[in-house]
Amino acid sequence: MTAGEVILFHYTVSPFARRAVWYLALRGIPYSQCLQPSMLPRPDVARLGISYRRIPILSIGRDIYLDTRLQLPKLEAMYPELPRLGASTADQRGVERLLSAYMTDGGIFQHGVKLLPLDLPFLKDPRYFEDRGDYMGAKLSVEGLKKVRPEALGEFAAAFELLETTMLADGRAWILKTDKPSLADIEAVWPLHWISGIPGALPRDRFSPEKYPRVYSWIKRFQEEITAAKKRNERPKTLNGEEAASAIENSSWHEEEGIVDGEDPLVVAEGLKRGGMVSISPTDTGRAHKDVGRLVRLDKDEVVIEVKTAKGESVRVHAPRHGYKVRRHGGDGRSDVKL
């Protein structure tokens, strides 16, 4: 891949956005940012013709990438002159992918939401529960958070215990025994870094540097590396929504269109064809927000659709196959396949 202009749509306290920000910082990749509100609506995203509600969103040229599980591998393929963060051997790649699955697909982040201290200011705002209820696909409330907190504490204790007694047990600085933090460290650290940094989220008697000395030392080392990397790098330029959209619309394509794999079971079952209209949406959180566009590519790793921005310009939206639903879409704007 060639290196196009990188723009990150995010808000600074988003745990998922931190994954992308950390990756960009550790590799020293220059980028611009378009800061977003923590709750809907997000007019800057809608301006791009995108209904997707999750953060972060990454654009490289006229190609727009959803989900950090796709964004990080795309960035890894860029800037060959810079040291990469991904694993170099098959067994290390296995550890990296399993950590991603455990922390992301395994629901550790969702359990972290249940541990938010109930005296946080935004938890007193009814709009928060309405917005995050839409995100989670379930009704949320203060009383509901109280009820599920014990279960969430157990899940986080298991995550701390796993890292303390296995991957960090021999005293290594980083998960894969690297000299610097790697992608495997990002995959493992982000929910623990997030929730341990919120005062009152984890009870001191069950979670402390004395109980989990290796985990807490690792989190501290990781933050020190991020702080140092940000000091070395040029600060990202902040764009408003109009500036970001203009930069994207006036860019060239970052990737070739690719192909639609005619032998893919989904392509066969749905009768999907290149150029046909499809909808894509996450299968876990934010699944009510579907994007509809012309199918450009579908292979084992990703699905790509072409959509129109508010100004009528074409951009391509990329989503990973894993964790996303793809359905044929009728010309009248309604899905012709029962969901």
UniProtKB/TrEMBL annotation:
InterPro entries in the record: DUF7962, Glutathione-S-Trfase_C_sf, Glutathione_S-Trfase_N, Thioredoxin-like_sf
Top-rank lineage group of the source organism: Eukaryota
Domain DUF7962 as annotated: residue spans: 113-231
Sequence ranges assigned to domain GST N-terminal in this UniProt record: 8-80
Region Disordered: start-end pairs: 232-255
Name by which UniProt lists this protein: GST N-terminal domain-containing protein
Organism: Trichoderma cornu-damae
